[in-house]
Design brief:
Helices cover 90% and strands 0% of the residues. By secondary structure, the chain is mainly α. Helix 1 packs antiparallel against helix 2. The longest helix is centred in the middle third of the chain and has 99 residues. The termini are far apart.
């Protein structure tokens, strides 16, 4: 990515410098040999630019892969943490529910025991009154 940006900026500067250069004086038309040399130079420059762009693209892909791997690793770690938290919450909820059931059983047992005592006391009173 950095190489691509650097290439683009360098191209802009080169274009700006060329655009500001004074018009060349009337020159003779280039000969066939000169045109051929220029064409070869242009092809060479284009190939070099293509090579730089290809390398920049490879670097971008490599960087994207590294970023993606890091994102996956982070997501897995986060999922593991969430799973652990959820597991702890479930364990705590089960313990709370178990404690509530135990408390409810104790309260029901105490109420039943109290009712039984009251019934025995009522029987004793009824039996004593009947005699």
């Amino acid at each position: 990515m950095k190489n691509t940006i650097a290439t683009l900026i360098a191209g802009l500067f080169a274009t700006a410098a060329f655009a500001q250069a004074p018009a060349p004086a009337a020159t003779a038309t280039p000969t066939k040999a000169e045109a051929k040399v220029e064409a070869k130079a242009d092809v060479k420059a284009a190939k070099a630019d293509a090579k730089v762009a290809k390398e920049a693209a490879k670097a971008d892909v490599k960087e994207a892969k590294v970023d993606a791997k890091a994102d996956v690793k982070d997501a897995k770690a986060e999922a593991k943490a969430v799973k652990a938290d959820t597991k702890a919450d479930v364990k705590e909820a089960k313990a709370d529910a178990k404690a509530e059931v135990k408390h409810a059983k104790k309260a029901a047992h105490a109420a039943a025991h109290k009712d039984a005592k009251v019934a025995v006391a009522a029987d004793a009173t009824t039996t004593t009154a009947a005699k």
